[in-house]
Amino acid sequence: MITIALPKGRLGDKTYALLSQAGYGIPAMENVGRKLVIEDEEKGIRYLLVKPADVAVYVEKGAADLGVVGKDILEEEGADVFEVLDLGYGHCHMAVAAKEGYKEDPSRRVRVATKFERIAREYYAARGRDAEFIHLNGSIELAPVLGMSDVIVDIVETGSTLRENHLEVIDRFMEISARLIVNKASYRFHEKEIDGIRRSMKEALG
Ligand code: PRP
Questions:
Q1: Does residue 27 line the site of ligand 1, with CB under 6 A?
Q2: Which residue lies with its CA nearest to atom 14 of ligand 1?
Q3: What is the pLDDT along the chain (206 residues), one digit of tens a residue?
Q4: Is 138 in the pocket of ligand 1 (CB under 6 A)?
Q5: Is the CB–ligand 1 distance for residue 156 below 6 Å?
Q6: Measured distance CA(176)–CA(71) in Å, rounded
Q7: Could you tell me the pTM of the whole model?
Q8: Closest ligand 1 atom, CA of 164?
Q9: Is 44 strand, coil or helix?
Q10: Rounded distance between C-alpha atoms, residue 94 and residue 92, angstroms
């Protein structure tokens, strides 16, 4: 049996639709309720419904053979998995943003609020910029508005959260979309089945 970890929520809905088009309709998805595991015995596939931020962990640890995850989470987790297909949906980007008109003072350490601390640390380390990180779990845009941070490193999709809080993008640095990932050991043992699923998903994308 092949196990696939799927994200719940927005990315999940698009993923279930794609899988269904690819011939892997999840049985009784409409009345899934609070179930976390769904089995398709006929196809030999088991689906795990998990938090988007946890998909890469399930796949890296081998609890799932395959998973669908945003590139942002993949980078943030630094997951040791194979990334085998760009699914082309869930598009957004990672950016540094600040209050409109913000001028950085290079003589001072920059204060960065983010929930993507690893990505933010790598960004500033690569630029040799001294930075201090404030870890938040959401509503990141509040931090510069309140003067708690100078900038944020966060996801921008439509840009409306920034606009409505009078913030603007300073640097757009990572393009994000949903990716199909594979556990490294599973790929060795189930190469044929995994390649079959990957191919069907790719074809369904058109
Ligand atoms: C994400 C992100 C931004 C917003 C960007 O937050 O952290 O706040 O979406 O989208 P936009 O450019 O279309 O406005 P999310 O909705 O996940 O909520 P959060 O604030 O709880 O992280």
A1: no
A2: 161
A3: 999 999 998 899 999 999 999 999 877 666 677 778 999 999 999 999 999 999 999 999 999 999 999 999 999 999 999 999 999 999 999 999 999 999 999 999 999 999 999 999 999 999 999 999 999 999 999 999 999 999 999 999 999 999 999 999 999 999 999 999 999 999 999 999 999 999 999 999 98
A4: yes
A5: yes
A6: 5
A7: 0.91
A8: 14
A9: coil
A10: 7
Report the separation in Å between the CA atom of 87 and the middle of ligand 1, taken as the mean of its atom positions: 21
How many residues are there in the chain?
206
Cα distances from 59 to residues 53, 69, 98, 125, 174, in angstroms, run: 12, 10, 35, 28, 23
Distance 139 CA to ligand 1 centre (A): 7
- Residue 31 Cβ contacting ligand 1 at under 6 Å: no
Q: Is the distance from CB of 28 to CB of 16 less than 8 angstroms?
A: no
194's CB contacts (< 8 A; 6+ apart) are: 2, 65, 66, 84, 182, 186, 187
Evaluate whether 10 touches 70 at the Cβ level (below 8 Å): no
The residue written with tokens 């809080």 in the block is 165
Nearest CA to ligand 1 atom 18: 138
